[in-house]
Design brief:
Helix content is 79%, strand content 0%.
Length: 395
């Protein structure tokens, strides 16, 4: 709550500074915003790659059993469904663009242009040089490499060499998280700068309308996933969604207020075992894994926010582009293990990596507190559904 109040205060201060219309002050704010954008771009590649590699290297090693197989399948299906609901709702609601002057100073050419065919997209994903994707910030190529390396590490026989590599990667990730924590600690200054940039250039009415529709898409997608899609998964497996939700409600409510799936995990496991009647070996295996990789709300947020930011950056949202970023959002959400600020930071990193106007994300930060509450509750509900379905299948 304290951090949220500080962010809101920074947003208000930045807006007031921007409305003053002082030229030298606007220049200073532009400089600070550019510094933060460059820092996010600096951390974007290692954040994405290390998160995906360490996730699959750590949990993929348990993948020989039927329990993990079921867990992974249901995780991917529900995560894909959440992202697809977000994409469909985005097309229906169609959030408008912010005024052109808002994003003109931060927009750079995207690596996904409307003239590029879907066939070319596929070819561009396949790297022919292991260094080139890192230098170019080719997001999907990096995800493909990270996925392959993570799965490869998980399949290596246990040995000293494997342990050294995995520990080294985890150590690098710990170091990266330390840098991220430092950046987040100073983030109110960046919010002031981003907010000042926006308020100096744009009419508040247009921003409110555009951002309002964006929020409607994000929260609406979460509600549909929570009350319609996940219950349909349960019904398809012969389970009563009202019964399952009733038994898991303590964990879902705790997730809503704590905004942490990890903090809720003990209660989620207790509810699954003692209230829902899930086998202990299944609950204690599935739920910790789901807490790390089953991110329905995160996938939807990454996709919708990426589409919104790219649209404002001038990218034409063709079917091929939407499908491509749907895949990116699913893989990113699954690999988003332990990143501070979760999917918001990962989304910002992805957008920085392709040169999209990340200043727009500055005004989403205070709203993200509410979004995060709903997403966390949805994630724990999805974890519960995956656990219940796996238990049913292996009964």
């Amino acid at each position: 709550m304290k951090r949220t109040l500080i962010w809101i205060g920074a947003l208000v201060v930045g807006a007031l500074l921007g409305f003053l219309g002082i030229a030298w002050l606007n220049d200073v704010m532009d400089f600070v915003a550019t510094v933060y954008t460059r820092l996010f771009q600096l951390l974007a590649v290692p954040t994405i790659v290390l998160a995906v590699i360490t996730t699959f290297a750590t949990f993929g090693s348990k993948g020989s059993g039927r329990i993990f197989g079921r867990t992974l399948i249901y995780t991917l299906l529900t995560t894909f469904a959440a992202a697809a609901v977000g994409a469909l709702l985005y097309e229906v609601v169609a959030p408008g663009n912010l005024p052109a002057e808002v994003i003109s100073s931060t927009t750079q050419p995207s690596d996904i242009s409307p003239q590029t065919s879907f066939y070319d997209h596929i070819l561009n994903v396949i790297p022919n040089n292991i260094v080139k994707p890192f230098l170019e910030g080719n997001v999907l190529s990096l995800l493909l490499l990270a996925f392959a390396i993570g799965i490869g590490l998980s399949k290596l026989p246990e040995s000293e060499n494997k342990a050294v590599v995995v520990k080294g990667l985890l150590g690098l990730q710990d170091l990266l998280f330390l840098l991220i924590h430092g950046l987040i600690w100073t983030l109110p200054l960046g919010i002031v700068a981003f907010s000042a940039q926006l308020s100096a250039q744009v009419s508040a009415g247009v921003v409110a309308d555009s951002i309002g529709k964006y929020v409607l898409v994000v929260l609406g997608g979460n509600v549909i996933q929570f009350f319609v899609v996940l219950p349909l998964f349960l019904i398809a497996r012969g389970l009563n969604p009202i019964h399952v939700l009733g038994k898991m409600m303590p964990a879902v409510l705790m997730a809503l207020f704590t905004k942490s799936s990890a903090a809720t995990l003990p209660l989620t496991m207790e509810s699954a075992e003692n209230r829902l009647g899930v086998r202990k070996d299944i609950a204690r295996f599935v739920l910790p894994i789901c807490t790390t990789i089953n991110m329905n709300g995160c996938a939807a947020f990454i996709l919708v926010t990426s589409l919104f930011v790219m649209q404002n950056g001038g990218t034409t949202l063709t079917l091929g582009t939407i499908l491509l970023w749907l895949l990116i959002s699913v893989i990113s959400a699954v690999g988003n293990a332990g990143v501070p600020m979760g999917c918001f930071f990962l989304t910002l990193s992805l957008m920085s990596g392709i040169g999209a106007p990340v200043a727009i994300l500055g005004i989403i930060l205070p709203i993200y507190t509410i979004i995060d509450m709903v997403e966390t509750a949805e994630n724990v509900w999805s974890d519960s559904c995956v656990c219940a379905m796996t238990n049913h299948d292996l009964r």
